[in-house]
Amino acid sequence: MNPAEKRTWPRSGLETTLMGFGAAPIGNIFRPITEEDSAALIKAAWGAGVRYFDTAPMYGHGLSEARCGQGLRWYPRDQYVLSTKVGRLLKPRKRAEIDFTPWVDGLPFEMKFDYSYDGVMRSIEDSLQRLALEHIDIALIHDIDSYTHEDRQPEMFEAAMSGAAKALLKLRDEGVVKAVGVGVNEWQVAHEAIKCNDFDCLLLAGRYTLLEQDALDGFLPLCEERQVSVILGGGYNSGILATGAVPSAKYNYSAAPDTVLERVRKIEEVCREYSVPLKAAALQFVLAHPAIPTNIPGVRTVAQLEDNLQTFRAQIPSAFWAELKRRELIRQDAPTPQ
């Protein structure tokens, strides 16, 4: 696959490259990245032909948006697609009073959930200021799943489907943004969201991967039927599909359980037989689904970025995917790359 190849979104007409730039790492998740390294990452991504960048107010409490805007500012605005998110407002506060977890050295703002109509309108204005760009292409309602809200998920979902969705659909109809949707960690929530509102796209993190294909049960077929584009994040299941089944492997940001480790070992066995890098299989597999136009792996260094670019280009024989299905390591109804 060519990571710089573009696919057109059927509803909005937006064009995104197969490989996008997930900008959570430049928000200093878990550990800091210098301004110089952040700028170098965006420059290297642009030089490689990447033309889709995804950020959010949450990432580094505004730091990721600020760095994205700075890194992209002098490139032609009509040559790339930018997405950000709504659902959190940032308020100035002393650093010593802010819990930045899991971000390190974020900007001096505390975050407050706000899925109201007015809150979303304010959020878009604030994001434009932090980005210092003239427009946003894609706006996503962020984190309305139980992964974020636990027992309050139904309440937050309802607020988002009424207030936030109404605001974003109005902004889309007025041409302020070109596409709107939700960004979540659970496909079931995304499934309900597109039943409730006329969304163009969804960002799904970690729930359709080489390890997990339950999203084929209704959700992805509905996306295909309604021509809803799915941005795929978390394609490594937070680590294990990049590192393999090593003792320190992470799955869903925690230590991988034995059942997951064993399944990955079996996938790795097929990878060895066909000389296919596990990372290449993970990145390329998801893009075979017709509803998924782009995959946005996060990177912390230029070396990681270049490794992902090479991983996208790796040649994978059709027999490899057939063997995974024969051993029941991926679902029989899962589309695979041609």
Shape: globular
Q: Please give the CATH architecture.
A: Alpha-Beta Barrel
Within the largest sheet, what's the order of strands?
A: 3-4-5-8-9-10-11-14
Helix content: 25-40%
List the domain count as a whole number.
Answer: 1
Described by strand count, sense and barrel closure, the largest sheet is:
8 strands, parallel
Structural class: alpha/beta
Quaternary arrangement of the chains shown?
A: single chain
In terms of DSSP E residues, the strand content is 15-25%
H/E element sequence: EEEHEHEEEHEHHEHEHEHEEHHEHH
- Fourth-tier CATH superfamily name: NADP-dependent oxidoreductase domain
Low-confidence stretches: none
Distance, first to last CA: 10 Å
Number of strands: 14
**What fold name stands as the CATH topology?**
TIM Barrel
How large is the radius of gyration? 19 Å
What is the overall pLDDT average? 96
Features:
16% strand, TIM Barrel, two-stranded antiparallel sheet, 338 residues, eight-stranded parallel beta sheet, alpha/beta, globular
Give the SSE map.
Layout: E1 6-8, E2 15-17, E3 21-22, H1 35-47, E4 52-54, H2 63-72, E5 81-86, E6 88-92, E7 109-113, H3 117-131, E8 138-142, H4 146-149, H5 153-173, E9 179-184, H6 187-196, E10 201-205, H7 219-226, E11 229-233, H8 240-243, E12 250-251, E13 254-255, H9 258-274, H10 278-286, E14 294-295, H11 302-313, H12 318-326
Parallel strand pairs: 3-4, 4-5, 5-8, 8-9, 9-10, 10-11, 11-14
Antiparallel strand pairs: 1-2, 6-7, 12-13
